[in-house]
Design goal:
This protein is of the alpha/beta class and about 270 residues long. It has 4 helices and 28 strands. GO terms for molecular function: acyl-[acyl-carrier-protein]-UDP-N-acetylglucosamine O-acyltransferase activity.
């Protein structure tokens, strides 16, 4: 771990088997777990809490001050879960008084040039492809995948297991289990391939498809569609997750595709 060409603040708490490559800077008030590899030319600033067996590639900057004019120097942190990979030139900013922390979950992959702003919460097993830009206060559910060069508006929520096409402008909330694409961003079906890979049965996938038919293809507004879903579909964790997501949406959810479009919705 002791790399003479790296600067490690004496107050940093770094596990014995962490590897720190040359020309990296690690500030005070930093914690790094066992087995993590910190590549060359990485900057890890005060407030970083990095888990076990992570990999952080050259040019990344972790726990820089938030790019928020309301930030007044309060003590905030960045938390990165175990086994997460941070590729080249990724930036992850600390929280503000809102949440006091920015969180990246375990087993995530943030590809090159991703930016995660203050007070974001990224779940476990998420993938943010190259140059995804995440504004402040965004929440991303477990297993979500966001395609490259997408931009996520502040306060947007993306549900678990959602998959969003590259180059998307994400201005509205994206509910769980769906695929989203086009401009403006639109529901284009459920993420059936991803769900099968994660062990969802064909029956469960069919139930989720029926739920979204009622929500996006029935011609009902969201409130009426949710009432119909609760009337027609038996309670289940997936049904309740979608219903609660829609009802609690702060920015409103993306729309369903029109019947005149080319998508099948399945």
């Amino acid at each position: 771990m002791n790399q003479p060409l790296a600067y490690i603040h004496p107050e940093a708490k770094i596990a014995q088997n962490v590897v720190v490559e040359p020309f990296t800077t690690i500030d005070k008030d930093v914690e790094i777990g066992e087995g993590t590899w910190i590549g060359p030319n990485v900057t890890i600033m005060a407030g970083a809490r990095i888990g076990k067996n992570c990999k952080i590639f050259p040019g990344a900057v972790i726990a820089a001050q938030p790019q928020d004019l309301k930030f007044a120097g309060e003590k905030t942190t960045v938390h990165i879960g175990d086994n997460t990979v941070i590729r080249e030139c990724v930036t992850v900013n600390r929280g503000t008084v809102d949440k006091l922390k920015t969180v990246i979950g375990a087993n995530c992959l943030l590809m090159a040039y991703v930016h995660v702003a203050h007070d974001c919460v990224i779940g476990n097993n998420c993938i943010l492809a190259n140059t995804v830009q995440v504004a402040g206060h965004v929440e991303v559910g477990d297993y979500a995948i966001v395609g490259g060069s997408s931009a996520i508006h502040q306060f947007v929520h993306i549900g678990a297991h959602a998959m969003i096409s590259g180059g998307s402008l994400i201005r509205k909330d994206v509910p769980p289990f769906v695929k989203a694409g086009r401009e403006p961003l639109t529901y284009v079906g459920i993420n059936s391939i991803g769900l099968r890979r994660r062990g969802f049965s064909d029956q469960k996938i069919a139930e989720i498809q029926q739920l979204y038919r009622l929500l996006f293809l029935s011609g009902l507004n969201n409130a009426a569609a949710l009432d119909q879903i609760e009337l027609e579909l038996a309670p289940s964790p997936e049904r309740d997750e979608v219903v609660n997501f829609i009802r609690n949406s702060g920015r409103g959810v993306i729309k369903g595709y029109s019947r005149g479009s080319n998508g099948s919705g399945e």
